[in-house]
Amino acid sequence: MQTSQDFSIRNTGTQPLTVEQFSFSALGNFLKSPQASSFPIVEPDTRRRTLTVDVPSTAVAADYEGFAQLQVGSTAINANEGNISVQVSAGAGSAPAIDLSASSLVFTDAATKNLTIENIGEATFK
After folding, report:
1. What SS3 class is residue 111?
2. Are strands 17-24 and 98-100 parallel, antiparallel or unpaired?
3. Which residue from 74, 90, 94 is spatially nearest to 82, judged by alpha carbons?
4. In this structure, are residues 97 and 112 in contact, taking their beta carbons and an 8 Å threshold?
5. In this predicted model, what pLDDT tens digit does every residue of 22-73 receive, in sequence order?
6. If you average pLDDT over residues 93-110, what whole number do you get?
7. Enclosing H/E stretch for 83
8. Is the overall model pTM greater than 0.85, yes or no?
9. What pLDDT, on the 0 to 100 scale, is given for residue 27?
10. CA–CA separation, 83 vs 16, rounded Å?
11. pLDDT at 122
């Protein structure tokens, strides 16, 4: 199972910012760092990166569920605030699946009919 999430890093200072590295406080076996080479961000620019969760099919949820911090190492004066919370849950990357209880509704003998919509997938359905 593999899924990705984009995030942005924005330079709000007045000097160029260099992002030097990405590391994780936990779940390092399953979280894949964004592009690891250092890159500058000249204010007021924003750079987008992608964080990927890659879970082998042999892993069980207890192996990879949990919380971690994506630690962004940079030249910022507030570099210790450059952490992004990451939560990995069972079903991450799985698609929601819909199950409808009726294939059609015919309104000839009643003013209301019941229709049940159920998520039978592993991910949140909204």
Report:
1. coil
2. unpaired
3. 74
4. no
5. 888 788 788 887 765 678 888 778 888 888 888 887 877 777 777 788 888 8
6. 67
7. strand 83-88
8. no
9. 81
10. 19
11. 61
Residue found by looking up tokens 């890093």 in the block: 9
The torsion of the CA quartet 69, 72, 78, 84, rounded to 10 degrees, works out to -30
Residues 6+ apart with CB under 8 A from 114: 101, 102
String of b and e for 46-79 (b: at least 16 CB within 10 Å)? ebebebebebeeeeeeeebbeebebbbebebeee
**What b-and-e string marks burial along 20-40, b requiring 16 or more CB atoms within 10 Å of the CB?**
eebebeebeebbbebeeeeee
Return the sign of the alpha-carbon dihedral for residues 58, 67, 31, 2: positive
- What Cα–Cα distance (Å) separates residue 76 from each residue in 27, 33, 47, 81? 25, 20, 15, 9
> What radius of gyration do the chain's Cα atoms show?
21
Give CA 62 to chain center in angstroms. 18
Task: Tell me which residue has tokens 């964004």.
Answer: 34
Up-side HSE of residue 14: CA atoms within 13 Å toward CB? 0
Q: What is the dihedral of CA 54, 57, 62, 66, to 10 degrees?
A: 10
Angle at 31 between CA 26 and CA 34, to 5 degrees: 120
